[in-house]
Amino acid sequence: MAPPDRSLVRLLAGWLPRQRWFGGKDSPIDDLSIGTATELLPGDPGLHHLILDVHQNTTTDQYQVLLGIRSDLPERLRAHAIGRLAGDNGMAGHVYDGAHDPELTRPLLAHMAEQTTIGPLRFRCTPGAEIRTDLDGVPGTAEQSNTSLVFGGTYICKLFRRLSPGVNPDLEVNLALSRVGCAHVPAVHGWIELEDGGGGDPVTLALLSEFLSGATDGWRLALTSVRDWFAQTAPPGPVGTPTAGDAGNAGGDFAAEAERLGAATAEVHRDLAGAFGARQASAAELGALVHGMNEQLDQVGGAVPELRPHVPAIRAAFGAVRTAAGPLPFQRVHGDYHLGQVLRTDTGWTLLDFEGEPARTPGERRALAHPLRDVAGMLRSFEYAARFLLAGDEAPSPEASDALERRAQAWAERNRAAFCDGYAAAGGPDPAAHAALVRAFEFDKAVYEIRYEARNRPSWLPVPLRSLARLAS
Length: 473
Ligand SMILES: Nc1ncnc2c1ncn2[C@@H]1O[C@H](COP(=O)(O)OP(=O)(O)O)[C@@H](O)[C@H]1O
Ligand SMILES: O=P(O)(O)O[C@H]1O[C@H](CO)[C@@H](O[C@H]2O[C@H](CO)[C@@H](O)[C@H](O)[C@H]2O)[C@H](O)[C@H]1O
Fold this sequence. Notes:
Pfam family, one: APH
Number of domains: 3
Shape: globular
Keywords: ATP-binding, Carbohydrate metabolism, Glycogen biosynthesis, Glycogen metabolism, Kinase, Nucleotide-binding, Transferase
CATH class of the largest domain: Alpha Beta
Strand order of the largest sheet: 6-7-12-13-10-9-8
CATH superfamily of the largest domain: Aminoglycoside phosphotransferase (APH), C-terminal lobe
Distance between the termini: 60 Å
Largest sheet: 7 strands, antiparallel
Family: Belongs to the aminoglycoside phosphotransferase family.
Low-confidence stretches: 239-250
Number of helices: 12
Catalytic activity: D-maltose + ATP = alpha-maltose 1-phosphate + ADP + H(+)
Order of helices and strands: HEEEEEHEEEEEEHEEEHHEHHEEEHHHHH
Mean pLDDT: 89
Helix content: 40-55%
Bound molecules: adenosine-5'-diphosphate, ligand LMANGFYV
Enzyme class: transferase
């Protein structure tokens, strides 16, 4: 049964902009329609899978929603309410974000295990995998752009919220890396896809992977270390040596971990080159790369006035790419590499989320790129972690802030250097030998982040903006 369109559309249009994963907060929704509606579970509670076409300015984006419907909404689900339907089309009750209702998530596993097809939705199981069907999924607590459901500490199912055409690179790359025996990615168990009515590739809707229980993501670990570092007085010693200040600290010095992360990154780059190939970039490709960087700079500069004073320095830095990147081979890379994309398990670092930057086109996400782009992404992330506590709710008084800014800088520099050392020692191109290139990629990433924060988390915008002055110096 199709959900009642008109009243539901009104409710969704009010609810959508308030969601963390909605990537269009920088402009109003001009129009919203339901592209596909598929009933996955009849009854009370019921579950409908919706794909929404959201029109903003000149673009149309597709978002995925699992719509729960109940006659009574229990207290635990009230925070996820979308609204109440009066009963047209024979459907009445409370509608809410069904991803937060464990009773509704269990059928997703059963469908993947059985490789069901329901309407345009195809549920798939990785060849050889046996998916358990007795687990309920609850959303994870990590800071993220999509919604991931954790099933009993066994699986994690990422529901892609803003959809991109074709096979999602996260699925494509994880399957390819598993095939070449890469030690730094979780196993893929299954996925959900939307058949493409137009004869093209199916659209990936969700990815079911092994859940790495007991692991902590790099962002959380780094923030703990920064907090400890802000609380200490002694300067840090060389990488790997304990400092007077970190004795007894829970987070302690992060530099040895940063170095190991650099090494894991180089190993994954080697495996990506093995799985997808690597080759010299042509002059035309280098030109297109620089053109794309300048284009993004113009767009973001147009939308965010605080960026404009830095535009000449950034444009000058981009000029280095054409000459400096030429001699180095291009290959598939992670594409949106930062501390939230890496998990520290008992045995080492695992890399997640090979989706690329959410704001990029599918072609850009799949394009061969320079591996030092990922290095620059992670270097930016060390800056983010160091400065996050200075910009958010925990921001210190202006008097304390100067001293902490210097400490933040020292933390970032130490961990950036350790990461680069680990990367080069494990066989990656030495970032220190390609400083102009890395700086250009860091600028590009900072510009991307300014747009990302403006669209997704406007209160975080000061974090990348503040680092522009430092990068420009
Ligand atoms: N296989 C996994 N095991 C354990 N936790 C995971 C796993 N995959 C993702 N996570 C957690 O979910 C978070 C978000 O995952 P990610 O794939 O980066 O989603 P998004 O693209 O929405 O940001 C990660 O930072 C990590 O904390
Ligand atoms: O959702 P994704 O993980 O694919 O990536 C997007 O969201 C990230 C934030 O969740 C964003 O990363 C930025 O914030 C991080 C801290 O939350 C920081 O570690 C990164 O360095 C910074 O870029 C990422 O840019 C965006 O694509």
